[in-house]
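Teaching note: in complex prediction, the entire set of molecules is handled at once rather than each chain in isolation. The prompt given to students was simply: 'Predict the structure of this complex.' The entities are:
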Amino acid sequence: GNSVTQMEGPVTLSEEAFLTINCTYTATGYPSLFWYVQYPGEGLQLLLKATKADDKGSNKGFEATYRKETTSFHLEKGSVQVSDSAVYFCALSDSGGSNYKLTFGKGTLLTVNP
Amino acid sequence: GAVVSQHPSWVICKSGTSVKIECRSLDFQATTMFWYRQFPKQSLMLMATSNEGSKATYEQGVEKDKFLINHASLTLSTLTVTSAHPEDSSFYICSAKQRGSYEQYFGPGTRLTVT
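The expected output is the structure of the full assembly:
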């Protein structure tokens, strides 16, 4: 079946530091890949996505590239801010079926200190 | 953007009782809704998928007689935990999507504690 493995946290960084959160996946077929972010007290929000190999998703300074050869979708940001403190989830969606079910990684808590 | 609400945000109930959690799409029609369960420091685990007007499809290992899901309208789905036990204590999250769209919009979650 499908699975997502992401870097365990928590991750603590200083403001303006470089961020990488690793994510690898196992799936049949050609899944779409996502990063979701959950700010304290809020629901998950879609941060970025990529639907095919070599696609790069980007949003709010975050980037991730769909690497089929390494089955990876690592999240990066060049300079983090305190407001980026949140839990980040990597996820994949089955390409088959119309319901687009999501499989999530365990989440990585990021804390950015001023 | 699309907003999904959940009610209540937290609930405490006694063992053996039932509790209902509501999930509403506030500004769009949700043809499909999903219910997830999240344990501390764990991933979101999909429990079931419901399409409006149809019976829910449960994931393997999820007891459909214990977790009753109703999706009677395009804006409302409910999850009822029947005869709750302490091991049912968890964080329950719903999401909703529109027909033909891949994107799911998530509610803020409901913390259930069974004493």
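Point out the following to students. The mean pLDDT of chain A is 92. Chain A touches chain B at residues 4, 32, 36, 41-46, 89, 93, 99-107 (CB under 8 Å).
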